[in-house]
């Protein structure tokens, strides 16, 4: 980007490169900022808000990604003409279980009634548990938040 003000003509060049070759920050985004003045060697002042925004962007992009892949610890399922059920659990604390049962709604109409729950550990350190029922009245979830140590 080139901008001219008065007698000064200056250029701002932003270059985004990634991922980083640094093993400590493999997913880091490298941001190069170059400012040049074509009139003289005067320092070009960048507004503090703009400089802070670039610095925060660089910090966020360079933050280490410590998330390990999740592995399946348990997985079971059963499907039959009257319904189904399944459950699984992963190494990161995520789990889900669900049962579906064939239900007679009217004399000539059937539907599956589903009930189940799922649980996951959020980045905020809390564990969220959602239980639900899905039937002719719609999807009806209920959320519960477990504090650490519960």
TrEMBL record:
One example GO MF annotation: structural constituent of chitin-based larval cuticle
Name this polypeptide is given: Jg10253 protein
Alphabetical UniProt keywords: Cuticle, Signal
Origin superkingdom: Eukaryota
Annotated coiled-coil segments of the chain: none
Pfam family, one: Chitin_bind_4
Taxonomic source organism: Pararge aegeria aegeria
Gene name tied to this protein: jg10253
PANTHER family on file: ADULT CUTICLE PROTEIN 65AA-RELATED, CUTICLE PROTEIN
Transmembrane segments annotated in the record for this chain: none
Any single Gene Ontology cellular-component annotation: chitin-based extracellular matrix
């Amino acid at each position: 980007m080139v901008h001219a003000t008065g007698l000064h003509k200056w250029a701002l060049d932003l270059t985004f490169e990634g991922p980083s070759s640094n093993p400590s920050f493999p997913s880091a985004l490298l941001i190069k900022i170059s400012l040049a003045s074509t009139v003289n060697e005067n320092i070009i002042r960048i507004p503090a808000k703009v400089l802070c925004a670039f610095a925060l962007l660089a910090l966020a992009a360079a933050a280490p990604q410590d998330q390990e892949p999740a592995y399946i610890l348990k997985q079971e399922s059963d499907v039959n003409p009257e319904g189904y059920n399944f459950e699984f659990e992963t190494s990161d604390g995520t789990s889900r279980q669900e049962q579906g049962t064939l239900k007679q709604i009217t004399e000539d109409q059937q539907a599956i009634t589903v009930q189940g729950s799922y649980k996951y550990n959020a980045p905020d350190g809390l564990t969220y548990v959602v239980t639900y029922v899905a039937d002719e009245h719609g999807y009806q979830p209920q959320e519960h938040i477990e504090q650490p140590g519960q």
